[in-house]
LysR family transcriptional regulator
Amino acid sequence: MDDWNELRLVLAVQRGGGLTAASEAMGIDHSTAFRRLKALEARLGVRLFERLPNGVYQATEAGARIAAGAERMEDEFLALNRDVAGGDHRLSGRLRVTSSETLAYSLLTAHLAALRQAHPGIVVELSIDNRVLSLSRREADIALRPVRPKEGELWGRKLAGVAWALYAAPAYLAENSGLSRSGELDGHALIGWDEAAPAIAAAEWLARSATSASVVYRTNSLVNQLIAARTGIGLALLPCYLGDSDGGVVRVSGEPVAALQGELWIVTHGDLKKTARVRAFFDLVGEGLASQRDLFEGRRSSN
């Protein structure tokens, strides 16, 4: 085996459980991934994966050994890459950032514009993704996450708490009464998550607080839930920084839902914390978001 891309392919197939995920990770089409894997198996004279009845590719003993070796090589390469990048003192170059859809839609972009004005040489590549991307594998340089990082090699800080509340359009509330003193939701039309959406605390709270029959509209996008509430479809449970900054909806209840207090963190890999453009992002964007703590924590409405 004299081609690093062959090792990458085996590792990508094992990680993704199939050729579709592997081809996406490597930026090649499915047929190319299939052809390369078959050619590698033929040249080595050994099968590297067994395809299970559910379509998942399971590594054989030989495939697992190759994938483990490829992962060790990748770790060394990424460590070297981070070491070099960590000493980069230029306020220019590419900076890959990952953020949730709601943060990017509501508040983040204005702070990115401030970064652009201060340091026009920094090119931000924003990945809007609710998944937790790997900073160790350089899937992103900086992450804005709703949870405290657990990986010991990561470095960052909490920017704010994140409060949630119920919102509706004024027209909806004009035609329907507000919440009862007990806060019961039944009797209201609700906007919720589709069943395939990942389990999050807000969705679980809504499921406990109202019957499934009350949910008249479902979507896996919080931004779309906001838009649906704005049109008068029903009540939506939203982070306060999203709902309070939108003039088309108002809070149904005065106080945020106490059980749904979350967090917002800014995180990078420890090897990159001294990189000039990473520091600039922390200073301008991180501090800019932290200055809106009252909005994140539901103490100030910008309506």
About this structure: Residues 91 and 277 are 5 Å apart (CA to CA).
